[in-house]
Amino acid sequence: MSLNKVILIGNVGKDPDVRYFDSGAAVANFSLATSERGYTLANGTVVPERTEWHNIVVRRDLVPFVEKWVKKGSGVYVEGKIRTRSYDDQTGVKRYVTEIHADRVEFYNTGTRPADGTQQNTNAGVQPIAGQSAQPANTPVNYQQPTSSQSGAFSETSDADDLPF
Amino acid sequence: MSLNKVILIGNVGKDPDVRYFDSGAAVANFSLATSERGYTLANGTVVPERTEWHNIVVRRDLVPFVEKWVKKGSGVYVEGKIRTRSYDDQTGVKRYVTEIHADRVEFYNTGTRPADGTQQNTNAGVQPIAGQSAQPANTPVNYQQPTSSQSGAFSETSDADDLPF
Amino acid sequence: MSLNKVILIGNVGKDPDVRYFDSGAAVANFSLATSERGYTLANGTVVPERTEWHNIVVRRDLVPFVEKWVKKGSGVYVEGKIRTRSYDDQTGVKRYVTEIHADRVEFYNTGTRPADGTQQNTNAGVQPIAGQSAQPANTPVNYQQPTSSQSGAFSETSDADDLPF
Amino acid sequence: MSLNKVILIGNVGKDPDVRYFDSGAAVANFSLATSERGYTLANGTVVPERTEWHNIVVRRDLVPFVEKWVKKGSGVYVEGKIRTRSYDDQTGVKRYVTEIHADRVEFYNTGTRPADGTQQNTNAGVQPIAGQSAQPANTPVNYQQPTSSQSGAFSETSDADDLPF
DNA sequence: TTTT
DNA sequence: TTTT
């Protein structure tokens, strides 16, 4: 009886760190900032804006997408789950890191856009139904998750979407 | 064992319809549009943009907020649940309408802003933690939900049943 | 600037209706009930339990999973988006139906279980990260979505790295 | 442009730690476990069950509810946001802790139940619409969140729910 | 380290 | 009926 669900919309702090392994495994890591507006209380107390940094971890078929499109400053929608892992730092002290293991990453139009002139900035919004991964709007369709449950969404040709109902 | 949760971000189609009753009850209704980008399939098929219209229903303490701030064009974040009700139309035919009963409505900065020059447009983002209702950024804190909408939830009778309180 | 997200946990009303098309497209439909407890207001008014029925629509690679495992009574977790479509009924009257287009369907242990003796009922909980679709716990692994973005989720060993693929 | 949303369903690890301050502030902390089923890969590799522990932080009007009802073993639904804070441990080393700041806590029937014999476990499901916080069914309406950002949520009595539609 |  |  369990649910562990995270939904984030924010901006990427710097270009993702991407690693491919001999085994074929792939991982991308990036930090995502979500911000809460500051405000002033009735009594005059000022509560400043607060930024939260999330460690996003992406694996498998989402990695190439992230590698290609997600950049410092990108406005991104992330769905995934929380995971905390521990490791021993250089001094032998046990450390804990909490990460968001993403099972969906999509572009969100925030007005910001990558410096490269690609068109993801024209996205009208996030399209969760689009599947596990996403591709910038107007991106050549041949960018595609090798076969994801969802990718079908973009790769399918005839089927579902021209169903007679 | 049940969960009925909806999260929407979109734009308001026209000014909300607000009604106050003698009983003190209040209801606001507005339509919210969410859009999916169009895209082109690998085979060249063009799947056009698609807009979905949601009937949002707001009650109780959220109503004054909606009445005051939510306008045609507003970028809004809504959390709530799905509810379908039926009614008989003029011709006696039974009709069904699905609505989203909101328990949270907040401004989302979409670049669009109400024509009145208020400050909700300065919001840096939605702040779900802000509570059941929301108020535009920098709004005097005394704007507050006097009473709430969830309440019903908590006064259960029978089943939960026989809890000693 | 758009988000259209639905998360439901409930019970399936009857065995899904599954259709495969010559085009290769596949669709499964089933109804899902979510319930709210009844309660009594401070003034003594009794608000009875309320059951909401959702029309779930599943496409593509999720269809075989649904066909095989989802049955009347199944406790199910569904993620998707809201979509309303219209059609003309037999009398020529325009009708609207709101459906939840699922991009994730998983078993949830509700104590209810399919009559067939399979083991999905032993699931410890829903595992959204597990992917777009899901498979009952302890199900022979060979049941699997033909390779979805998530499915990888089932193949991991230790952590990120060192993955054998 | 920001969203930081967490939805968890799991079991409480031990009785919450509750503190009230002279200022009137109140905080409750408890750990919540969510579990992923283990599974076996096609190649025979066994991936064991994995339990994730979340640090839940509750404030204001939700505190009395948590203090009274949430116990070790309770099946609980939590909605909130992720927050990471740092502190210096005894040895002067900077540590980070990620917590979930809840703005909604509700009972979920998981079959598990508090040791005290109350019946919250018989709840038919979580009712997110019920509000920012929650209390077991049948609670006298006077149990109420005094007035917090969310709290307002709990004070209404009659209205809305006996609206003529 | 991002954004507004 | 909104927005990009």
UniProtKB/TrEMBL annotation, chains A, B, C, D:
Q: Where is the stretch described as Disordered?
A: 109-165
The UniProt entry's coiled-coil ranges are none
Which InterPro entries does its entry note?
Answer: NA-bd_OB-fold, Primosome_PriB/ssb, ssDNA-bd
Which keywords belong to this entry? DNA-binding
The record's section on Pfam families has: SSB
Gene Ontology biological process terms in this record:
DNA replication
Q: Name one GO cellular component term.
A: nucleoid
Question: Which portions of the chain have biased composition (kind: Polar residues)?
Answer: 109-157
- Which CDD domains did the record assign? SSB_OBF
Q: Which GO terms describe its molecular function?
A: single-stranded DNA binding
Q: How does it assemble?
A: Homotetramer.
Name the HAMAP family on file.
Answer: SSB
What name goes with this protein? Single-stranded DNA-binding protein
Species name for this entry? Parabacteroides chinchillae
Recall the taxonomic lineage recorded for the source organism: Bacteria, Pseudomonadati, Bacteroidota, Bacteroidia, Bacteroidales
